[in-house]
């Protein structure tokens, strides 16, 4: 999808004019390419007090090939940093936050293009005493604000790591690598909770899905097609699902990634069985299901009708319940294995609501409810359940939005541009990685820190 | 050498379009490639080398001398998959399936695609014969002067292209005209033909509605269902159409109860049990046997489209079966009256005795088992694509039922017929 404005102000004369007029200039975001380094430049790592996670982070980052340097209040950096990781998980008093400011500020000043700020904390609900909780909660405000100040494609995110996972590289590796890498290009200002990984499954972040079977619904185009490609890139056999009427586009997607096309309306009563049957043709069990298919039928709440209401809730939410039920039955051949992954696509509309989208927001908020409840239910089977909530992503769906509204949606975020479908795919793949077993019940926004739906 | 069982793994086709309809700009090669790619995607075969691909087209451009191989090269199959063209008029599609099945049975190959494509929208226009001769002379001219002299012979009337004709070269009669003669001979009524036509439309529409074709059809160029399909077709509506074949009082064949010219392509995937197991694919049905026949229609001994009963009689005998031993009958509806003539002939003691040499007539069939998911009258009939459509449809029906047997019968120009038997896999029969 083309963003004419971004192309104009980033090239030739347009760039000069934009500079002179002080027009916002959306940066070209660093995105994953084959063989790319984890980060573009050295990573400065620092922390407060005992900084229990900093040591783990150093191990993980150098293990992933990054050059790690010390971040202190006195550090001066030669050249641009690819990222700064700051461990504030031990902070329990508000006074300690000054230490964060003193160390983090010089590092942030030295960040290069599309660099990363990653703050690490302890989940406030695991901290004793109100001041401790307040201190940890403060990290969210700090991270979100830094995210809004960063330019040139840099992002800031927060990892709240459970106390029992803080010195466990197996729990930290996948989330830390995701946020450090270019795969999180359109994720900024977001907190994510990391629990102790249920099993020690180290995975190569470049090829985490070798030998796995992954189902992606709504894969004929848009975000779904990119999700399918990201999984295939990571080594998965992808079963791409879409309605029979989209079969020709679906076949093209499947053939370019060596996957399988399954023409199926996910609202069909036997959709779960048919997915399981397709899986069984390739493996005994399914590793990952991505519920991406979705529709909009916008109309003001007072004017909408039963059909618009029902169809959106049915496609976007109810179908997931029906399909999950079949796939989660341990007796189902081709069902989801223990230790498998369920990832759903929510929306920032489901978080903040949207004019004319009561039905859609109902379905997407519902997805968030589903994820939170089901993740707890399935914890003992080590199945994780998460959602991504995309903001404005450049697809056929957003092409339908009138120009002015579309332009607002596109610019009103920290990176001044719409996201690409692949950005959503990367976040979903991260949730699905074997190494992400400690991440469950989470909703991650892929929205460039949009003001909409906040 | 021992023979192996052969299985129909699945199939794919694009919706059939009416001539001059949605596929006006699509060539046979385009359609065949799209069908192969849809099938490759359905079974996850991208980059695979198959034993072979056999397909053909009845109406073909000279440039399509290697149609099937070119389609394979344009597809996601491995370019190391060999391919060849077959042409047996409307029997092409089924004949390719028999050829591929036989090679698999012999162990020469383990897997293959069989099918065909046809378009009457992108039909070749032949040059007027005189013009062609003039141009050839100009081509062989030695000097510019000679060339100009040759070209000067072109007259305006030579610029009218030779129209492609849907007629039998040896009789000059169109297929419909031939059929009208046979229809009259067998006394097939207009009502019976219209009723069969309505059933075809209703059955096909119902099959689409219940998702039967979800894994048999891949949409193409904006078409998601067969363009000719009329779900609201009724005997009353059909009764208003004027006859187009045959003359005067007894004329019963209309544009409604005859198949329209259409465009489309289809393919089926056949393999050995081992290949299916290796690919974790569940066979839909076993391809049991096939037989072709031809009749002398030129000297009026038999009707042009009456060959299939001859093939059926021989096939049943070889397989120790009676006509009543089937759960499904797929009789290609070239015209509604073709099907009805075949059924009448097979019930007729005299026909079966004198023409087929049988002591007993083949007998009647249970009509509720005939073309239960619709056939060519509703779907359309892109000549070479019909066989693949029927094989895949019947195979899936047998898989859904989980047991039993089905008979396929297709009549073809030149007084020919191709028939085959499919059977539910033994696993289904358990
Ligand atoms: N584009 C955005 O900005 C944006 C923002 C937030 C959330 N989302 C969500 O992301 C997901 C993908 O959106 P997109 O922009 O790629 O949309 P899209 O319309 O381009 O693609 C959606 C796909 O889902 C398929 N689909 C719809 N109903 C189906 C059904 N019943 N069965 C099977 N497949 C079905 C469609 O055929 C289509 O191929 C949706 O859930 C959407 O709500 C998108």
Radius of gyration of chain A (CA) equals: 22 Å
What's the number of helices of chain B?
A: 15
Percent strand of chain A: 15-25%
The CATH superfamily of the largest domain in chain A is NAD(P)-binding Rossmann-like Domain
Shape of chain B: globular
CATH topology descriptor of the domain at 175-211 and 288-425 in chain B = Peroxisomal Thiolase, Chain A, domain 1
What small molecules accompany the polymer chains?
nicotinamide-adenine-dinucleotide
Q: Output the CATH class name of the largest domain in chain A.
A: Alpha Beta
CATH architecture of the domain at 175-211 and 288-425 in chain B: 3-Layer(aba) Sandwich
InterPro entries (chain B): 3-ketoacyl-CoA_Thiolase, Thiolase, Thiolase-like, Thiolase_C, Thiolase_N
Domain Thiolase N-terminal (chain B): 6-273
EC number (chain B): 2.3.1.9
Organism (chain B): Metallococcus carri
List the helices and strands and how they pair.
The complex is a heterodimer of chains A (454) and B (430).
Chain A: H1 4-9, H2 12-21, E1 43-47, H3 52-63, E2 68-70, E3 81-87, H4 97-109, E4 111-121, H5 130-149, E5 155-161, H6 169-180, E6 191-194, E7 213-217, H7 222-233, E8 237-242, H8 247-256, E9 260-263, H9 271-280, E10 286-291, H10 306-328, E11 336-345, H11 349-352, H12 358-377, E12 384-390, H13 396-399, H14 403-411, H15 421-432, E13 443-446
Parallel strand pairs in A: 1-2, 1-3, 3-4, 4-5, 5-6, 7-8, 7-10, 8-9, 10-11, 11-12, 12-13
Helix pairs in contact in A: 3-6, 7-15, 9-10, 10-12
Chain B: E1 7-13, E2 17-18, H1 28-43, E3 52-55, H2 67-73, E4 83-85, H3 92-106, E5 111-118, H4 129-140, H5 144-151, H6 175-185, H7 190-209, H8 235-239, E6 243-245, E7 253-254, E8 262-271, H9 273-278, E9 285-294, H10 308-318, E10 328-331, H11 336-347, H12 349-354, H13 376-379, H14 386-401, E11 405-412, E12 416-423, H15 426-429
Parallel strand pairs in B: 3-4, 3-5, 10-11
Antiparallel strand pairs in B: 1-8, 1-9, 2-8, 5-8, 6-7, 9-12, 11-12
Helix pairs in contact in B: 1-2, 3-14, 4-5, 6-11
The complex binds nicotinamide-adenine-dinucleotide.
GO molecular function, one term (chain B): acetyl-CoA C-acetyltransferase activity
EC number (chain B): 2.3.1.9
Keywords (chain B): Acyltransferase, Transferase
